[in-house]
Design brief:
The radius of gyration is 53 Å and the shape is elongated. The strands form two sheets. It has a five-stranded mixed sheet with strand order 2-9-8-4-6, with no helix packed on it. A four-stranded antiparallel sheet has the order 1-3-7-5, with no helix packed on it. The longest helix has 62 residues. It has four helices and nine strands, in the order ββββββββαβααα. By secondary structure, it is an alpha+beta fold. It is found in: Endoplasmic reticulum membrane. This is MSP domain-containing protein.
């Protein structure tokens, strides 16, 4: 029984081209479009799986949509006399409307339900003329572009110098604030020392000594008067008893 014709539209249709140099990973893009009104399951297979990395290598394409498949060729030593025999195959199947398991769909698929398309791979190295042209294109800059670059560079440098000036100003203000704090600390320390010295002087001054002596004399006199009064009271009490 003949296979069902591929419903997916492939871009490119027959050939994947990889353009060197091949000292690094080279990527080719394969676009898959689903023009039908059904979801389509797909798989991408290759005859050289160790040489390529395909993302995504399987999935579901919704009705009326498309996806891009990245085919990444791993680095290798290119030999222009060697022809590539690598091939890719895009396999697809209409997804059941009540599908829950994509892997189960592939396992239960009948051969006549499967659709496939094959593509071959080609390797190309850029010509010397192409290299020279690309190099000159990168080096050539139009006068308007140069002028624009210069004008755009000026504001940037001015902005940079302005930022430097602001930074210096802030640093200077911080330094002045630190000096002011240090000065206030020293003044506070000096005030405390002067206050302590003043208290010590007051405590040891002659006038203070005289006042203390006078206070001591007054206290002594008061004690004597009190003792005499007590003595007179006792004598009066004794005399009173004798008279009685």
């Amino acid at each position: 029984m003949a296979r069902t014709e591929q419903v997916l539209v492939l871009e490119p249709q027959q050939e994947l081209k990889f353009r060197g140099p091949f000292t690094d990973v080279v990527t080719a893009t394969l676009k898959l479009t689903n023009p039908t009104d059904r979801n389509v399951c797909f798989k991408v297979k290759t005859t050289a799986p160790r040489r390529y990395c395909v993302r995504p290598n399987s999935g579901i394409i919704d009705a009326g949509t498309s996806i891009n498949v990245s085919v990444m060729l791993q680095p290798f030593e290119y030999d222009p006399n060697e022809k590539s025999k690598h091939k890719f195959m895009v396999q697809s199947i209409l997804a059941p409307r009540d599908m829950t398991d994509m892997e189960g769909v592939w396992k239960e698929a009948k051969p006549e339900e499967l659709m496939d398309s094959k593509l071959r791979c080609t390797f190309e190295m850029p010509l010397e003329n192409d290299k020279t042209h690309e190099s000159e294109s990168n080096k050539t800059v139009s006068p308007s572009t140069s002028v624009k670059t210069e004008h755009s560079a000026l504001p940037k440098s001015a902005s940079a110098s302005l930022d430097d000036g602001e930074v210096k100003k802030i640093m200077e203000e911080c330094r002045q604030l630190q000096m002011e704090v240090q000065r206030l600390r020293e003044e506070n320390k000096q005030i405390r020392e002067d206050d302590g010295l003043r208290k010590r002087k007051v405590a040891t001054s002659p006038s203070n000594t005289v006042a203390r002596s006078a206070m001591m004399k007054d206290e002594g006199l008061s004690t004597r008067v009190l003792a005499l009064c007590l003595l007179f009271f006792v004598i009066g009490a004794i005399i009173g008893k004798l008279v009685l």
